Structure formats: C-alpha cells, structure tokens
Amino acid sequence: MVIARPDIFTEPSDVDPDTLANLGPLRPLAGVWRAEKGVDLNPKADGPERRVFIETIHMQPIDPQTNGPQLLYGMRYHIHINTAEEDITFHEQVGYWLWEPATGVIMQTLAIPRGQVALACGHAKANDRTFSVSSERGATDYGICSTDFLEMAFRTDSYRIDITCNADDTWSYVTHTMLAVHGAEPAFDHTDRNTLHRIGPAQKNPLMLILANKAGVPKPAAQHPL
Predict the structure, then answer these.
(1) Does any domain span residue 15?
(2) How far from chain centre, in Å, is Cα 12?
(3) Closest CA to 199 of 67, 31, 45, 55
(4) Domain that residue 151 falls in
(5) Could you tell me which of 98, 96, 114 has the C-alpha nearest to residue 106?
(6) pTM for the whole thing?
(7) pLDDT digits (tens, 9 = 90+) for 150-167
C-alpha cells in the first residue's frame, strides 16, 4: 500500500504582499518605540538588583515568508537598552516576530550578544490585544540554546513574554526568565517590565515599497535603520 505524503514543497500562489495588513495581533507593535521607566529585576552575588532602564525598540515589517505551504507574516526587531547612570549598553536583542494566519501561531525569535538564542511560541486570534509566547530549555521545536558558560553559571530553563496592546497607542510587556544560578536554589525569576510609547511610524515592507515605486507612488521618508 502506498501512503500519501503531504505536499511540503508547493508554496501558496495567492500571497498578499502587504505585510502590515496581515500581521494579525502583531500589527499594533509595528513602528519605533521608546520608554524611560522600564524595570529589571536580576540576580547578583549580594541578592536581587532592581534597575530602571531606558529602552528603544525598532519593529518593521518584512516581506511574506513561506516554508513550502506555510505562510508567515512578520517583523524584524532590534531592542537597545541602557540606563541613566551608564552609557554602555545594558541589553541588546535582535530577532523576528512572526504570525501564521492559518493557525494563529505567534513566534518570537531572539538572539542576544552573550551567546544565547531562543524560539518562543504562542497562539492568538487576529484581533487579540493580549498574547504570550514561551520557550523552554531542552525543547527541540520551541527551545533555548546557550553557551557552555551560561549553561553552567546562569542556565535559562524557560522564557515567557506577556504583551498587552493598549488603546492609547502604547504597548506593555512583562518577561519572566527562569535562571538556575550556579550555587543557588531555587531558580531565579528574572523579570522585566515596561510600557513603550510610539516615537516613529511603521514602514511598508520592502516588496510593497517596490510595487509602490513601480506604480509611481512617492517613497515615504526614510526612517532610522535597524
């Protein structure tokens, strides 16, 4: 008996090129954001430390992405954080937010320049104003990967971010990163929270800019690059 295999190669032929129109619950996050009163609670040798931080986030649409028949719309993002008392970067992070309209899956990829990457996943409806994604160490689909030093000293067992899109064109988040700190029990709940205000608009994705240029539509003013 021949078992039919799923078609994993054929890409959809009717893809809408307008990413902004198809971001579902991610749509309110598109643009440039800033806040000066974020709060970080992190582990130190003498006990937990609370820091207030300044955060700037750029989130701009990318062209539609396909994995064979799977269709994703998303945004590339860059997070930069420092503090009022120090000029050096306190935290930096890059990645993608992705939305699969067919299934309601939301994904966040993240990478930080200390040797750690993760892929987090959640579900939401297109008009939801709150959603969450999470990731766990050891998972082969939505997991966390770290350097050998981080595994030994500050092992990340799980990550979760809860996002709320507010009616006043702001959005808020709370992150919980469970850290197994070497020599300490139990795991530390490394928490960050912030509410960000828009300082720049969302751009069209590259394909839409090309199509607009071909149609003779004037280009929008350039925005600060990522």
Answers:
(1) no
(2) 25
(3) 31
(4) 20-212
(5) 98
(6) 0.91
(7) 999 999 999 999 999 999
